[in-house]
Structures are given as C-alpha cells and as structure tokens.
C-alpha cells in the first residue's frame, strides 16, 4: 500500500497501523466493518493489521452486544499509551513544522485549510458516525 506502510516516529508500526489504533481510540467499540468503510481498506488487509495489534496486545475484541456476528474493538492500556505517544509526537511535529511561519502566513494557511475542509466535506464525510448510521 505504499505510503501506508511507512513507519511512524521510528516505531515498528506503519502509518495505517497507527491510524487504525487512533480510530479505535477515538471510537471505542467500533467494528472492523465500520473501520474498513471509514478507512477505505480491504477487510483482509485490516484483518492482518488487527491481528498484529492484537498479538502485540494493543487491541482486544469483545462480542458486539447489538450483533453477535461482529466484534467490537478496543484499545488495551498499552494501546492507549502508544496511541497517546503517537498523538503527542504528531502534535509536536506539526508545531515544529509551522513554527517558522509568520502570523500572516499562519492565518493564510488556516483560511486555506478551512476552505479545503469545506470542499472535501461535500464529497467525503469527516466523521465516523456518518458511516455508523449506514451500518
């Protein structure tokens, strides 16, 4: 998958693995089916990534109380710590990257990003809850 397979912050995990971890952290009890739709990845690919994260005890599954055919995904305590570390490092990297910008350039960037978000929202839902309703 190219860019998805690059490692994050010199950890032994790919960007997609950290994205999966982050989405589970933001949406405890999310199902694998919802994750595949939201991340637009194949079920078999997600299954391999989840197996690795489970084996390394960052993620665990429980039966979905609303549908016994599916499993809800959760982060373990170790998974929460790893996710927090990656989030903190990401925030630090963004601050480091934007620090040299002057006030005018920073404000222009914020306006441009808001425009991009507004346009993309028309074609790509930005919240996982939208997909949950279609579940």
TrEMBL record:
Keyword DNA-binding belongs to the record: yes
Organism superkingdom: Bacteria
UniProtKB keywords: DNA-binding, Transcription, Transcription regulation
Pfam family, one: MarR_2
GO molecular function, one term: DNA binding
Domain HTH marR-type: 1-125
Keyword match GTP-binding: no
Name used for this protein in its record: HTH marR-type domain-containing protein
Taxonomic source organism: Enterococcus devriesei
Lineage of producing organism: Bacteria, Bacillati, Bacillota, Bacilli, Lactobacillales
């Amino acid at each position: 998958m190219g860019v998805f397979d690059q490692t994050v912050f010199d950890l032994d995990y790919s960007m997609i693995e950290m994205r999966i971890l982050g989405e589970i952290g933001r949406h405890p009890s999310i199902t694998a089916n919802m994750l595949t739709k939201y991340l637009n990845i194949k079920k078999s690919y997600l299954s391999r990534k989840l197996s690795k994260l489970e084996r390394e005890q960052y993620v665990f599954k429980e039966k979905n109380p609303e549908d016994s055919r599916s499993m809800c995904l959760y982060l373990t305590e170790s998974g929460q710590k790893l996710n927090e570390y990656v989030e903190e490092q990401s925030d630090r990297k963004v601050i480091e990257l934007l620090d040299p910008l002057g006030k005018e350039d920073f404000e222009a960037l914020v306006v441009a990003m808001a425009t991009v978000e507004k346009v993309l929202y028309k074609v790509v839902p930005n919240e996982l809850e939208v997909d949950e309703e279609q579940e």
